Amino acid sequence: MPPGSRRKACPHDRAETAERFAMNRIQPTRTIGSYVPMVDGPDKVSGRAKYTADIATAPGTLAARIFRSPYAHAEILSVDIAEALKVTGVRAIITGADCDRTFGVLPIARSEHPLARDKVRYRGEPVAAVAAVDDESAKAAVALIRMTVRELPAYFTATEALAPDAARIHERKRGNLEREVTFEIGDVAQGFAEADLVDEGSYHCPEVCQNQMETHAAIASYEAAAGHLTVHATTQTPHYVHLMMAHVMEMPMEKIRIVKPHIGGGFGARTETLNVELIAALLARRTNGTVRIVLSREETFITHRGRPESHILLKIGMRKDGRITGVHCECIQRGGAHSGYGVVTILYAGSLLYALYDLRAVRYSGKRVLTNTPPAGAFRGHGTVNVRFAFENLLDRMAKTLGLDPLAVRRANLLTAPTFTGNDLMVNSYGLPECIDWVERKSGWKERKGKLPRGKGLGFACSHYVSGASKSVNPDGDPNATVKIRLDVDGTINVLCGAAEIGQGSTTVLTQVVAEVLGLDLARIRFITGDSDAAPKDTGSYSSRVTFQVGNAALDAAHQLKTILISAAARKLEANPDDIECLGEHYRAAAQDRGLPLADVASEATRDGKPIVVTGNYSTIRESHGGKKYLGAAIGGTMGFSYSAQVVEVSVDEDTGRITVDRVWVAHDCGKALNRLTVEGQVQGSVWMGMGQAMSEESAYHDGLMLTSNMLDYRIPTIVDSPDIEVGIIESHDPHGPFGAKEAGEGSLAAFLPALANAIDDAIGIRFENLPMTPDRVFGAIEKQRRSGRR
Amino acid sequence: MTRTLEITLNGRHRADDVPENLLLLNYLRDVAGLTGTKTGCDGGECGACTVLVDGEPKLSCLTLAHTVMHRAVETIEGLGADGTLSAAQRGFHEKLGSQCGYCTPGFVMATVGLLRRNPTPDDDEIRAGLGGNICRCTGYVKIIEAVRLAARLAAQGVPP
């Protein structure tokens, strides 16, 4: 029943009628499920948004530059800074001798020094850092630093590093094996025996890099008198930076303030503390001042943390009705010179074989290998993308062999939610069938597949991703997410939240969640974030956790505040709280016509003169924490999986090998789209990022020297190369998600890569198992096909 | 060597004594304090530093400040009036042509330049006009929608 139709009006006089009439038109504001531009959009389009390098600092701020190793693997004999110290304007130079603490995102694998000590392990590893009065002086000093070393054998591929006689890159890791994981769940040999077709493929996915638009930067200020350190960092995980800063600087956390300004993209590159912010802090303490460091694009590439080069061997058994009977997967990842997220990445690659389809027998063997290349990390779709490329690629080939529709093969292997997978991952909502239906319909699959002229093709694939890892990588017993809301005596509503807005729209969606409960306009909510002094801790923006986990905490806090406001309104209106109706800007008792504006309700709620602060928490449930069937089986555990299906339409120019993606149809099950505009934007961005990896992006090295450390050689698709991407939003209403929501920012990436390979096979009968599918590779394959007379 | 640079910046005349080797990008950010113009790469790769010089999009990271002597330079800060967004800014905001926002000033300025040359671009002309700018967030789909909206708004009289 809409407000205003509740009961018949019985006016006493005209003024009261007018007042009542006005109040009856008041409606709570609702934005959930609609298209809502970002709340920080006006700042971004006007140039007002301040990113780290834009922040004005006090006069006397020093500029810092890093001296980096020209060697891929070497024992450091000396680092000579004597000449560099003579440069006018230089205030301090630090080396590995100045900090013996190691850092790393996983407590079990802190292998990295802010500045290398004893050894350097990749070309570009920081060795020394200069702080000077200006950038020119800092650069001049860096040019005078001399390093003498004893070179060691260096390994640039996983195979070289795994060779029996290879020297150890890290003393504690025998055979340069960062982590080996093996499991077999179900009887795979039996599964293959029951299959009508067992097929296998070998897949190669080169390393790719996030290459977010903003280069890494940090501003650190140290005040010796108070012992206070403030660090502005380009990070997705300010709390992890806070933890690691305290650890490396050997300072208590309460003496450190971490500020996350506007962030120019992350995509996983900034989900762990990087050497840049630690180096800035060390220099700030050494000079007892403020140090500003802004990396070049080349340095940002070398800092890396991208998706590891992966070799995947995949074998699948299938019955002639398309049912998968067994899966065998071997994955080798070249992890680079330090641990980073490596253990998690290799575990994800195995665990998320599951939860997309109903698999009964799976054997996985993963090896994460240390090499003398920059450290890989947690790139969007962490751990899942390359394995999904292999899996969906092989399924397509097997469908073809068996004469099955690729969609029918997926439909023969669907899960039924709620369920637990073979490796004990919890699946509560599962919109994959609807995703498949949507892209089938929109792409005209039934009418067009296999009927396009040669050179044109359609390809199909699916993918999925977690809505937040249920267990934090730094478990501390605290809830997974905490949001506070403060109602001030003047009626101001502040949301205090540590979730890191990195452009994905977390501030917008969390503002929406709070505003929805309170029925208020988004502009009524002030969102305070990005500062450890103001907001409660939040583990950050990674594994697509924010909407689900922080959204639920925001929901909890908002409901608490609403209850308080209703009680206050009930007191003031002398009514029963159960009868109070919240209209957003107005509260009224159902049985009365006179109500109270929110300002009066807030005033009543804070009548003792104290602001009200409510704390909303969210903790994942035990059942979502993953299994125990093998060591590391918790990785992959989540409260909700998103699902995606894609159809890609391509044209292949057989004279040049050039591929044009004409159109993409993608359906994404995000549970419930809290904001349709940002969901579409996230899904399109994911698909497109998959396209970059599929078609052109590759980090290439020569003896460990990165050859592609700029945006010309590392080829990101431009607007000219990029297709229309039509998004279908599928809403499976997850029982645990806030308003039923799940993630939208990662799950659609992986499906693009195999969908493109499958489309190219449809177009020209050539199946690519190696990435990227560049014109020269496509042309080479076409030539090979012509010579062998297969056309 | 320092020389006096005289330009019209966002409609206002300025004179600054600046080094001869100073890039326009650094002049705007460090001398004029207009940090809306971004550095995204090591030179000419990404378009984040795009500004208008006499109405034409230019990469300020490849332009020596002194080469724009006596010319009109426009940056993102010069768009919109009295706190309202210009047509291009509204397009990027309302259609989500901006996510992280870092490439946005460059894209918006390239859009303004495009719409001045061609007030009614079709999608291919939009792609050609913005082909020198890289965005890592959007996949460009909503950027094209943003420019379409900007063109419509400009046609209705909203300043570009």
Task: State the helicity of chain A in percent bands.
Answer: 25-40%
What structural class is derived from the secondary structure elements of chain B?
Answer: alpha+beta
Number of helices of chain A: 20
CATH architecture of the largest domain in chain A: 2-Layer Sandwich
CATH 4th-level superfamily of the largest domain in chain B: Beta-grasp domain
Fold and architecture overview:
The complex is a heterodimer of chains A (791) and B (160). With 791 residues, chain A is of the alpha+beta class. Chain A has 3 domains: 41-49 and 474-619, Aldehyde Oxidoreductase, domain 4 (2-Layer Sandwich), CATH 3.30.365.10; 56-152 and 216-294, Aldehyde Oxidoreductase, domain 3, CATH 3.90.1170.50; 309-471 and 625-787, Aldehyde oxidase/xanthine dehydrogenase, molybdopterin binding domain (Aldehyde Oxidoreductase, domain 4, 2-Layer Sandwich), CATH 3.30.365.10. A 7-stranded mixed beta sheet of chain A has the order 3-5-1-12-9-10-11, with helices on both faces. Chain A has a 5-stranded mixed beta sheet with strand order 7-15-14-13-8. In chain A, strands 18-26-27-30 form a 4-stranded mixed beta sheet, with helices on both faces. The longest helix of chain A is centred in the last third of the chain and has 28 residues, at 546-573. Chain B has helices at 24-31, 87-94, 104-117, 123-129, 141-155, and strands at residues 2-9, 12-19, 50-53, 56-59, 72-74. In chain B, strands 2-1-5-3-4 form a 5-stranded mixed beta sheet, sandwiched between helices. In chain B, a hairpin with a 2-residue loop joins strand 3 (50-53) and strand 4. The longest helix of chain B has 15 residues, at 141-155. The model of chain B has no long low-confidence stretch (mean pLDDT 97).
